[in-house]
Amino acid sequence: MTQTLYRALFLLFIVAGCLRLSAQDRQTDVGVWIVDTELNETTLLDDGEALRVTFHEQVGFGLSLNHFWTSRFSTELSAMSFGGDMSVGTAGVPEVTVGELDAGAITAIAQLHFNRAGRVSPYIGAGAAHVSGSFDVADDIDSDETLDLESSTTWTAAAGLNVRLTERFLLAGELKYVPWSPTDAEGLDSERIDIDPLFFSAGVRFRF
Question: Band of the pLDDT at 107, cuts 50, 70, 90?
Fold first, then answer.
C-alpha cells in the first residue's frame, strides 16, 4: 500500500510539471488533505449464523492535483490513504477485533465548478478510481499473516467546496464515495466484504 501511494505521489509531481509548462497563470492547484472515512458495516453468513463486520476507522491523508481547462471545468488526480480496525460480532456476543485494514485509493475525476470567481465556490465531479489494500490479522490470532485484498478499478463521485483566502491559497472540503467490495487477492473461496468507503476530507489548496 505504501508503494502505491509513493507511485501516485511521483505521478502527481510529473503531471504537475507538465501542466505548469502549458498552463495559464494560476490554473493548477495542489492540495493536501486530512481524510476521515466512513466504512460500510457488513453482515456475513457463517454456517447459518449472521456475523456483523464493523470498522473503527482511522484518519488518513491525501494529495491532489487539479488542472482547470476552462473557467468552470477541471480534472483532478488524487491519492488517499484509509483504513481501520476490523471487528466481528454476533447477536448477544461482544465484538472481537480480528485485524487492521490498510488501504488506499487513486482517483481521476472531472469536475464542474460554480461561482469560481467568488470567494466560495462549490463543485461536483465524477470519474474513475483504483482501490487496493491489505488486511493484517490481529496478533492474538496470527501474528505473521497479512492478506492482500483484491484491487478494483471502479467509479467515483464527489462534491466539494473551495473557500478562497488569497489569490493562491484556498481552504477546501470534500465528500467522495468509492464502491469497493474486495475478497482475498489469492482467489480463495471467501465472501466479498462491502467496504464502500465514504471520504470526508478537509484540506488546503495552493494555486499556481
Answer: very high
As a whole number, the mean pLDDT across the chain is: 84
* Spatial separation of the C-alpha atoms in residues 181 and 107, rounded to whole Å: 17
pLDDT at residue 206 is higher than 50: yes
Q: Give the dihedral sign, CA 106/112/117/122.
A: negative
Model pLDDT, residue 142: 62
Domain that holds residue 88: 2-207
Instruction: Please identify which residue in the block is written with the cell numbers 488524487.
Output: 78
Domain count of the chain?
1
For residues 43 and 46, give the distance between their C-alpha atoms in angstroms, rounded to a whole number: 10
**pTM: predicted TM-score of the whole model, two decimal places:** 0.82
Asked if residue 150 lies in contact with residue 134, where contact means CB atoms within 8 angstroms, the answer is no
Residue 70: which CATH number? 2.40.160.20
What is the reported pLDDT for 188? 54
Give the dihedral sign, CA 13/18/21/23: negative
